[in-house]
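Reproducibility note. Readers wishing to regenerate the assembly model reported in the main text can use the exact inputs given here. Chain order matters: entities are listed in the order in which they were concatenated for prediction.
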Amino acid sequence: MIKFHPTVPTLQSFVEGSLPAADSLIVSTHCDMCLSCSNFTHSCTESTAYSIFSDIIKNDLSSRDYISMFESITRDSNLVNVNLFTLKKPWIELDGRKFELPATLTRFINRVGEWSHLMGTLWQAPIEIDGGSLVQLIYMEKGGSMPEHTHKGNEITLVLDGQFDDGKCSYTKGDYVALDQTHTHTPVSNVNEGCLVMVILDKPLHFTAGWAKLINPLSQLYFKVNTH
Amino acid sequence: MLIGISLNQQNETRQPKECAVEMSGYLDTIAKQRCKLSFSKIFSYFAPRLRSYALKQIGNEALAMELVQDTMSNVWQKAHLFNSEKGSPSTWIFTIARNIRFDMLRKLKNRKEDVCSDDFWPILCEQTADTKSAPLDVQITLEQVGQYFNELPEKQQKVIEAIYIHGKSQQEVADDLEIPLGTVKSRTRLALQRLKDMLKEYD
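Running the prediction on these inputs yields the following structure tokens for the assembly.
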């Protein structure tokens, strides 16, 4: 059961096409997994369309301009033959386990970079968007945890598989969690199968506890900055 | 100007919802008969509205008109992709415009064009855009399939019948027939692929 969802304004911006690409990726993937958000974006698309097109415009363009546009469009009377392609269901394999990917992510499968060891039981792979690695897939092995950290920017996490806990809540498959500077947390995965998440950060994480403090200056290396 | 087609310059004041059925009919005629008269109705209603949306969103006259033209071109050329069961004509046309705008703005910001609107909203390029069902099924309706069904190997027929006519899950079929789930999956896939090929061949 998915308990955490994007906010209504976030879903609205997604529908309007005004979210940044990285955010759109994570929201769109959440909608693949979440029937209620998927239904909401559906009806939101409809109501947005109705409200945009119900504006009564004073006709400020000459009919000649419209007519020439009309004629140039209809000059070629052929339908464009679109080869609708169908998605295969790909998966990624990690630690001997296969993870099926939601529809949106499957379109990004070729952008998933190499997996690398982050620290302890954490693994990460970048998803290339805009030529930078703004979005990361992170896999926490069973019992794996991230050092306690705060965020200098915002962090959005979507659980793709498994479950993790941050001492306050437990998040399961499909949960969409947005955190900002005010949150400090230590995510831990305590279930048998570990946990696969997708994360966007707009600033590097700031580790607040123990040995991990040492790597703060380096956190840029682990998490590249999303500059939009 | 073509004979018989005049662009209605009077402002059409009906709300998009009120003329959805009518517009839907025009799209259908455009797709099936390449009817310019129907397209002129759609064009008269939507082009000025799109222009107003585009001006608000982009604020640049030339780009706004490019957005209107691209959107209306897509409507003319891809009317056959409109599916009234998935949404109203307004919704479809808005999503086309929204996608074009998304790509336009990324281009303006000199973003690398490696991400495009189709990645999020594959309305004009992907069959499974809004469904969660298996991809191949959508392309094939039972009606179309009926005549070719008998040409399938018996084992595949059984699987297809159980899943698509009796609505069983792949796991249930595996249990019923006492075969591994993987076998059910591969038989389903092979059968659908085969049907698709036959449909293509005889089309």
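We highlight two features of this model. Chain B touches chain A through 65 residues (CB under 8 Å). The CA atoms of residues 54 and 64 of chain B lie 5 Å apart.
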